[in-house]
């Protein structure tokens, strides 16, 4: 069994690298290549990675989720938000919140289960900025829209993680008939507060201990230990592991002058972990589930985009942005990948009866957004007059 795991891991990494390189040639993000590699190797096509092997890589998923959340937290610098003001926060809350409401509400309107609707709605909040940033860099886009876009995507996933943490608590309450009204009101508050406390304490501990170690390898080991340790403690204390790891990064980046260095050190460790995670996510895709997701898949793809566009427009109006930002910011927020796929793993554990449907919807929408998202972003930036073609 051990030899088979080693063999499968090697196949996963090689296929991920090759497919990532191939899709890069057609201007698609690497994560799309990783998902395609998993789809080809998984039970739906070649079955080189059987479903039992997908389940066996659960610990890799936990590690990947922990460091995805940690990296998001590291972007949460108070000095940065003092410089750009409150407008990006307002817009991020509006675009994520309205996407959640539209996806959840429309799914429930068409008769889908409330737990499934809430989970899909919460995942809809997440945005993957990589494709849009690629367009910005390729065409050297500059202007108010570009500046606001970069600010919004810096905090969008943080908003998404907080929203998802609240959604998971609600789903847990719905699933348990023994939960009292007091507990229903207290649980979301407890989960957020305990997660922030755990993350803050672990971050303080890391900042103190790291002073005694200067070697990069030792520092990398400490970062891994503290992030994974906090993830485990949050699980045991019924907090949100994702919010906890995000809190570690957020506290670290605001209290330590070495935060950037520690984040860069961790980035040397995470690429193969993320690659395995996304290939495994693709391998876990059940092609047979496509038959049953027609309507809900269409609802998710359309309502999420409408929510992002309407939310960005309203948020822009509330924060008094110019008409180009209000009109064209929403379309640039279409792409979705890394964080959303990570949240799928958590959602599947909460509503296992809908696991295949959730994975199918998110993977299909990820492919769609990855293909059309950069094109739409390019058009929006051009119409705003911030790129010349």
Automatic annotation (TrEMBL):
Topology with respect to the bilayer: Multi-pass membrane protein
Pfam families per UniProt: Na_H_Exchanger
Main localization, broad class: membrane
Residue ranges of domain Cation/H+ exchanger transmembrane in the record: 13-378
A GO biological process held by the record: proton transmembrane transport
Transmembrane segments: 6-24, 31-51, 57-78, 90-112, 118-136, 148-170, 190-210, 217-234, 268-287, 293-316, 358-381
Matches recorded under InterPro entries: Cation/H_exchanger_TM, Na+/solute_symporter_sf
Name of the protein this chain belongs to: Kef-type K+ transport system, membrane component KefB
Taxonomic source organism: Anaerosporobacter mobilis DSM 15930
């Amino acid at each position: 069994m051990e030899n088979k795991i080693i063999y499968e891991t090697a196949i996963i990494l090689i296929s991920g690298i090759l497919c990532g390189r191939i899709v890069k040639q057609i201007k698609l993000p690497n994560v799309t290549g990783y998902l395609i590699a998993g789809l080809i190797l998984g039970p739906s096509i070649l079955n080189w990675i059987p479903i039992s092997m997908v389940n066996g890589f659960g610990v890799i998923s936990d590690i990947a989720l922990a460091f995805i959340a940690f990296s998001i937290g590291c972007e949460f610098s108070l000095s940065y938000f003092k410089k750009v003001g409150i407008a990006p926060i307002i817009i991020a809350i509006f675009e994520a919140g309205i996407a959640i409401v539209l996806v959840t509400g429309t799914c429930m309107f068409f008769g889908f289960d409330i737990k499934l609707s809430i989970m899909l709605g919460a995942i809809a909040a997440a945005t993957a900025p990589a494709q849009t940033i690629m367009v910005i860099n390729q065409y050297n886009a500059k202007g108010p829209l570009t500046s606001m876009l970069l600010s919004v995507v810096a905090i969008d996933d943080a908003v998404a993680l907080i929203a998802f943490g609240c959604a998971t608590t609600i789903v847990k309450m719905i699933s348990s008939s023994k939960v009292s009204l007091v507990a229903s009101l207290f649980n979301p508050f407890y989960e957020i507060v305990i997660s922030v406390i755990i993350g803050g304490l672990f971050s303080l501990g890391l900042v103190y201990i790291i002073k005694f170690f200067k070697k990069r390898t030792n520092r990398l080991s400490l970062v891994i230990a503290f992030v994974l340790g906090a993830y485990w403690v949050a699980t045991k204390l019924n907090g949100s592991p994702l919010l906890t790891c995000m809190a570690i990064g957020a506290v670290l980046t605001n209290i330590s002058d070495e935060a950037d260095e520690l984040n860069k050190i961790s980035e040397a460790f995470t690429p193969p972990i993320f690659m395995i995670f996304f290939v495994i996510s693709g391998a876990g895709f059940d092609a047979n589930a496509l038959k049953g997701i027609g309507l809900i898949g269409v609802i998710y793809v359309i309502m999420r985009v409408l929510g992002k566009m309407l939310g960005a427009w309203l948020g822009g109006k509330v924060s008094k942005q110019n008409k180009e930002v209000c009109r064209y910011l929403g379309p640039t927020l279409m792409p979705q990948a890394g964080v959303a796929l990570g949240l799928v793993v958590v959602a599947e554990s909460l509503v296992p009866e809908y696991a295949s449907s959730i994975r199918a919807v998110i993977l299909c929408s990820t492919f769609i957004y990855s293909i059309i998202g950069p094109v739409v972003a390019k058009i929006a930036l051009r119409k705003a007059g911030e790129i010349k073609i």
